[in-house]
Amino acid sequence: MFSYLLIVRILELYFENARSMLPYFCKLGIKMKIHCFHQKMVSTSALSPLQLPSRMETHLWYVLPNEVKSQSLLSQYVDLLSPPEKDHVFNMRGDELQKSSLLARALVRTAISRYQIHSCVSPKSLVFGKNAHGKPEVIWEQRNDRHPPPLHFNLSHTSSLIACGVTVGSPIGIDVEEKQRTMKNNILSFAKRYFSREEVEVLSAISDPEAQRHEFIKLWTLKEAYVKALGIGFSGAPFNTFTIRFSDANTNPEDSTIAIVPLEKQTNLTTNWQFAQVELAGSHYAAICRQKDDLPGG
Fold this sequence. Notes:
five-stranded mixed sheet, alpha+beta, three-stranded antiparallel sheet, disordered C terminus, globular
């Protein structure tokens, strides 16, 4: 089912990739344990069980839509969806958008159904709802003989990659962006519209245009992951109401952390979050934001 299973600690990733990464990535020495699953989408009958993440772990699943070419397989995934999900998929304009929407929902269903929650969980039986601000969540069947796990997930996608982050006991937000994403407008002009003054100054200090573009993309993923983790929608946490700030350790770079600095007195902009950034498939940046209360040192 998987082409590979990569188990890394961000601390180890920092040392392995520090020379090849750009500044924002290099400063991430966060001790978050991440399991990355590159899922080859095959028949749902081939799904094998998997243990739930521990409270220290984040599971990050992803699929490359271009790898899925079988029409019979896509038809199997259509059968997994609820009627409203099917309506949403087939109301999309164009085959590629329909395929991407279908695979996103199939990835969430097949990933969550793998976890050994209850013996009878199947991809098709999962029921989803949304919180008051529209963030998707699983609605578990209530029974006296079992209690649903505090499982959280979040989905993000581009036209060429779809990702789903899963945690237990900790809200999560993720964002993925193509490394080669280009901007129609001037990067700094765009940043001034959406980012804080401090973040714009950081970007302005990068003289190389290509390096500046990469840093803009990575900063964007961090901010979007944070807003999605909050689960209150973009209207509840506009990008320009908080700063993503890196705090460098004086003697030990692996102890660097990312802090959320609210610019307005908003109680919804909480700061007890932990971040990490990884590369997926060599072509995308992914940012993960999760509550750090249950993590060591949180």
